């Protein structure tokens, strides 16, 4: 059943994401071609220079707008399918709510991973910046070379921490939205208050971790491990809280 839910999540959410990737990819290729003509081959002409400037501006705006768009679409999809017009259908499915949330978590992880790969790639193509690819290749070589085990562990933990921070931000929104819908009235107000509470709880947890002495240079690995564990535990708590609200105190719009 979990596999079917994951497949449904991918089909439902990736259609729009792939469309965004495709549009931005076309803009990226055109920007790169025009950049080669104007800057490298020194092709001159008022029209092509204006066209190049227009596509540079379009790429710059589209780059950040598309990132925000993907995040906002995920949030809107969550609200619509869990608490709004499709909520009744979702919560009458013959499957436990926790499986629906886990399927969403898997899809969120894949979306974040695809964005981490796709956006640096298109940025490097549009700007013709080989340093981006050199940096990636150097990191791959670093991981494949023998030795420096401690540095490799710290590098992996740093990447994991960045991914977990993004997932934490997503699930803070999900849990806050669900908590607001545990109330019959004032759903939006309670959702905002819940998100603020989650945010400051996270800051407080990190502050306690820092006060625990793990921030010393001699224990960077220990701090990174504890920080990642803190994020994993917090995400798990948010998922369980969301599941509890959806099964016990759900008030659909």
Topology diagram in text:
Blueprint: H1 2-40, H2 46-83, H3 87-90, H4 97-127, H5 130-144, H6 149-180, H7 187-214, H8 220-248
Helix pairs in contact: 1-2, 1-4, 2-4, 2-6, 4-5, 4-6, 4-8, 6-7, 6-8, 7-8
Which descriptors would you attach to this protein?
253 residues, 85% helix, mainly alpha
Tell me what the structure shows.
With 253 residues, the protein is mainly α. 85% of the residues lie in helices and 0% in strands. The protein has helices at residues 2-40, 46-83, 87-90, 97-127, 130-144, 149-180, 187-214, 220-248. α4 packs across α5 and α4 packs across α6. The longest helix is centred in the N-terminal third of the chain and has 39 residues, at 2-40. The model has no long low-confidence stretch (mean pLDDT 84).
């Amino acid at each position: 059943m979990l596999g079917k839910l994951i497949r449904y999540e991918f089909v439902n959410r990736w259609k729009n994401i792939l469309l965004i990737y495709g549009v931005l990819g076309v803009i990226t290729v055109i920007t790169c071609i025009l950049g080669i003509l104007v800057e490298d081959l020194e092709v001159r002409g008022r029209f092509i220079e204006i066209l190049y400037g227009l596509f540079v501006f379009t790429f710059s705006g589209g780059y950040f707008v598309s990132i925000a768009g993907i995040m906002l679409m995920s949030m809107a999809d969550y609200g619509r399918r869990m608490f709004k017009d499709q909520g009744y259908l979702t919560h009458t499915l013959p499957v436990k709510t926790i499986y629906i949330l886990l399927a969403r978590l898997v899809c969120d992880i894949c979306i974040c991973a695809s964005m981490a790969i796709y956006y640096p790639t298109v940025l490097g193509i549009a700007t013709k910046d080989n340093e981006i690819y050199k940096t990636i290749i150097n990191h791959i070589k670093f991981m494949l070379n023998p030795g420096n085990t401690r540095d490799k562990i710290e590098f992996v933990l740093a990447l994991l921490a960045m991914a977990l921070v993004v997932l934490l931000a997503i699930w803070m929104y999900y849990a806050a939205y669900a908590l607001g819908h545990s109330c019959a009235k004032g759903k939006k107000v309670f959702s905002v208050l819940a998100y603020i509470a989650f945010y400051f709880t996270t800051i407080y947890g990190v502050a306690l971790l820092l006060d625990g002495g793990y921030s010393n240079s001699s224990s960077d690995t220990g701090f990174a491990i504890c920080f990642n564990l803190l994020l994993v535990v917090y995400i798990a708590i948010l998922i369980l809280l969301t599941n509890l609200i959806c099964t016990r105190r759900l008030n659909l719009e």
